[in-house]
């Protein structure tokens, strides 16, 4: 997971502190700014029913910008943030121009799947082998199986723990009282 910290843009500890500060202000203010990969500095309001919608399904959690941010902070605290990072990288990869597929595929593979990957995700041998084979001729779907496995892992393991976590419970409580 956190092997080769030198290759990361910031250390795990710095990232965790950064997310803690971000989510601390998220929980204390009703009007806040959330940064995401696609919508920097967009104003979002954590409304009263939003946390309860996250409880309905993992998909609803991931479709919510606030929910995704809180879930990511939870995964950082669990030392498994690489799962959501990989999942989102795969989503982004699917929209890559064909001319850039090979370069981007190699970057994702080297960061998350390959031997000694700095942010290696937990995949079975067969899935790794199929994904490695897909790297010979990268297509938008070459990470599909691996992404599905990580989604299922997060849905069955991380998501139930998130719903019991202090991060989620505090967000839910704050949303009801704001």
Protein traits:
178 residues; two-stranded antiparallel sheet; 62% helix
Biggest sheet overview: 2 strands, antiparallel
What proportion strand? under 5%
Structural class: mainly alpha
- Rg (C-alpha, Å): 17 Å
Fraction in helix: 55-70%
Give helix and strand order, one letter per element, not per position: HEEHHHHHHHH
Largest beta sheet: what is the strand line-up?
Answer: 1-2
Overall pLDDT confidence: 82
Low-confidence stretches: 1-13, 25-43
- How many distinct helices? 9
Morphology call: elongated
Terminal CA distance reads 37 Å
By DSSP, the count of extended strands is: 2
Architecture blueprint of SSEs:
Elements (H helix, E strand, L loop, with lengths): L11 H17 L2 E4 L7 E4 L4 H7 L1 H6 L1 H13 L3 H13 L7 H12 L12 H10 L9 H21 L1 H12 L1
Antiparallel strand pairs: 1-2
Helix pairs in contact: 1-4, 4-5, 5-6, 5-8
């Amino acid at each position: 997971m956190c092997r080769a910290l030198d290759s990361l843009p910031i250390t795990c500890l710095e990232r965790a502190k950064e997310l803690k500060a971000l989510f601390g202000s998220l929980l204390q203010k009703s009007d806040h700014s959330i940064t995401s990969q696609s919508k920097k500095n967009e104003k979002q309001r954590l409304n009263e029913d939003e946390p309860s919608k996250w409880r309905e399904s993992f998909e609803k959690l991931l479709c919510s910008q606030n929910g995704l941010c809180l879930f990511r902070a939870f995964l950082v605290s669990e030392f498994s943030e690489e799962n959501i990072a990989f999942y989102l990288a795969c989503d982004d990869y699917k929209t890559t121009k064909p001319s850039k597929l090979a370069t981007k595929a190699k970057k994702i593979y080297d960061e998350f799947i390959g031997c000694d990957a700095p942010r290696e995700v937990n995949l079975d041998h067969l899935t790794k082998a199929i994904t490695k084979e897909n790297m010979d001729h990268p297509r938008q779907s070459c990470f599909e199986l691996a992404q599905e496995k990580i989604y299922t892992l997060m849905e069955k393991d991380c998501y139930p723990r998130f719903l019991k976590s202090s991060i989620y419970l505090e967000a839910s409580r704050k949303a009801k009282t704001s």
